[in-house]
Amino acid sequence: MLGALFLSQVLAAQGADAQVELDPWIERLPPHACERHLDEHEKPTEAPAVAELRRAVEARALSDEQWRRALVASGAIRWRKRWPIDRPFAVSLAEPRWLAGELGSRARLTVVPRIIGWRDATAGTLDVEGCGIAVEMRLRAERTQVLGPLAHDLQVVPCSVHVMRVVREPAPSNRARTELVWQGTLDLDVEPVTTLEESLPGAHDAELDRAVAASFAASLVVRSESEPSLWVHWVPDPTLHPELADLGVSLDVELREGPRVHARTELDVEGEWSPELHHARPGCGPWDTRHGASGVKPSPRALREAPADFSGWTVVVRGTSKSVVAQWDAARYWDGSFEVPLADALAPRTDPWWFVPVGRRPAQR
């Protein structure tokens, strides 16, 4: 609160010049998902630009144009500038740490398209959340939100934006109050294109195929007759394969015994990529929370019997365009293929430290 009061006094004295001083901080805002990292002592550290923007929000110091630039620069609002017209136009919303202002408050960002029949999009919540699963489900839903259908002549999606927050008053009242932090407009420039490839071209070559294959694994879990016992995973290691950073990945996976296809599944990748540290160990370099997992049904009984014989069994993997348009960090998508013996896919390997496939979890970490 003292920092907010000081900034408010500076603004009163310097007027518009003080708003100009916020521009460098807006340019230095990190992506919303990597606003904190662990320092050399493994203590959480917040990016300085985040603290500055939080104070600016608290002091109502941002101009309308600065609000727009901050929301876009931090990835609070993301969209593709070229969008395939055969798919409903969607955006990605997130609540950056600076959005609510003072620490301990909660915020909700709402984007309202000014087009009849289009839907609103929101991120954050004004409610107290006590369930981690519910929070994860909300965050997943916020990552891709459909607004409405594009028309060939639609070049701009005009939107109204407002930010609400709940703050708790100091003792002794400790009452919570809801207030409007900012409301304004934001035009989403978009170019409707005929095909997905005009927005997100397909890509594959020998090096890229090897990197995608190296991120693929399988695991065998026996639980019951009804549950899938074979799972396939895709989890990239950004330090080993930085070429995957801008790659959208959606996989069609076939389980074969010789030429016979026993089962097929689709594997969609979720999560985020960032070149900066997040909740990563010092020295880990870039982080990548993108992941995908899918159970293979029906899982052949032969693979559930012990000891299982994997000879003659292979996994065929093909890249598709199914969900890649909503993988917001992607500038291209993988449209290659590879085939790997099932025994090799199941073999233990050096996994990224944040990922241990089901069925291969060691007794101790």
Question: Which short descriptors sum up this protein?
Answer:
alpha+beta; 2 domains; four-stranded antiparallel β-sheet; disordered C terminus
Structure overview:
This protein has 9 helices and 23 strands. With 365 residues, the protein is of the alpha+beta class. The protein has 2 domains: 2-193, no CATH class; 200-346, no CATH class. The protein has a 4-stranded antiparallel beta sheet with strand order 7-6-9-10. The protein has a 4-stranded antiparallel beta sheet with strand order 17-16-21-23. A hairpin with a 2-residue loop joins β16 (250-257) and β17 (260-268). The radius of gyration is 24 Å and the shape is globular. It starts with a helix and ends in a 19-residue tail after the last helix. Mean pLDDT is 81; it is low at 276-287 and 349-365.
Q: How do the strands and helices of this protein lay out in sequence?
A:
Elements: H1 2-14, H2 16-21, H3 23-27, E1 36-38, E2 44-46, H4 48-58, H5 64-73, E3 77-78, E4 82-84, E5 89-93, E6 106-113, E7 121-124, H6 132-143, E8 145-148, E9 156-168, E10 176-189, E11 191-193, E12 202-203, H7 206-214, E13 216-220, E14 230-234, E15 247-248, E16 250-257, E17 260-268, E18 273-274, E19 287-288, E20 292-296, H8 301-304, E21 313-319, E22 332-334, E23 337-341, H9 342-346
Parallel strand pairs: 4-11, 12-22, 15-22
Antiparallel strand pairs: 1-2, 3-5, 5-8, 6-7, 6-9, 9-10, 13-14, 14-20, 16-17, 16-21, 18-19, 21-23
